[in-house]
Design the sequence.
DNA sequence: ATAAACCCTGAAGTTAACTCCAAGTCAAGA
DNA sequence: TCTTGACTTGGAGTTAACTTCAGGGTTTAT
């Protein structure tokens, strides 16, 4: 499979796929005798695996490190486990913070049904009181 | 309150506070006669409000736009509501994607108790089969 | 009244993650 | 065979969100 087809299948741009290979986020795909990348199923699986973590906001460097360790085999099991535990903590914290924002947004949307949201309204009022004009 | 005290209270660096004011993420704090910023409670409230959204990964430009609209008063109610609805969709999607990654991580952590995670193990095996050495 | 610590601005530098470009090689159809 | 389109690389450019710097003014404590 050419890099273009791989790009269509994964939804990642051609340039970006090459970039990911370059930084080691995806293992280097095999090449034809003339040097053209030939994406196989194994490499595509890596792309999908990597994308799932990327979508959750994990830094590429963290994912890259995990891929590097995984390719090194069983001896890196412990280190991978620690990396996953740290990543899990990050994601749980992120989830909480998103929930906090959702709570605020839902509250505001509720109150917008009646009038300007009271919390912001109060802040705007306090702000305006300090301003000479407007 | 000096900018340094505001920085300590909010956990945002002095430079970053000035940066946020500059890009309009926070309304400009009042100044003393000699031009030194004098952070008041109203401005601090804005900082806290903005930080909550920032922590959830919302782009600063989106938050900046919301602040701009809020300062313009009731006439922008509708536009703010639409902005909040869009932001809510983003956050819900992000939450789902984080959950997907958490599921994968939890599954891997479970299986790591016994041996190398089967999904990755399979991918590594497929990968190694293509490689001449190692 | 002077040194230390703090404040200001505008601009340049940094990092992550792309995104595009130039110049050249390779492959498939008329 | 010649064009057209896809592939290659290295490197430059972009955007978001900081971060640091240069050069100067202000406040405070001794």
Sequence:
């Amino acid at each position: 499979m050419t890099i273009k087809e791989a790009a269509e299948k994964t939804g990642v741009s051609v340039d970006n796929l090459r970039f990911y290979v370059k930084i080691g986020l995806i293992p280097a795909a095999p090449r034809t005798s003339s040097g053209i990348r030939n994406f196989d199923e194994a490499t595509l699986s890596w792309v999908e695996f990597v994308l799932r973590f990327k979508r959750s906001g994990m830094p590429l460097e963290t994912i890259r490190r995990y891929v590097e360790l995984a390719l090194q085999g069983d001896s890196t099991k412990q280190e991978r486990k620690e990396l996953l535990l740290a990543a899990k903590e990050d994601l749980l914290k992120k989830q909480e913070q998103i929930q906090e924002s959702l709570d605020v947004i839902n509250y505001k949307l509720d109150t917008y049904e009646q009038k300007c949201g009271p919390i912001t309204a109060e802040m705007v009022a306090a702000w305006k009181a300090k301003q000479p004009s407007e």
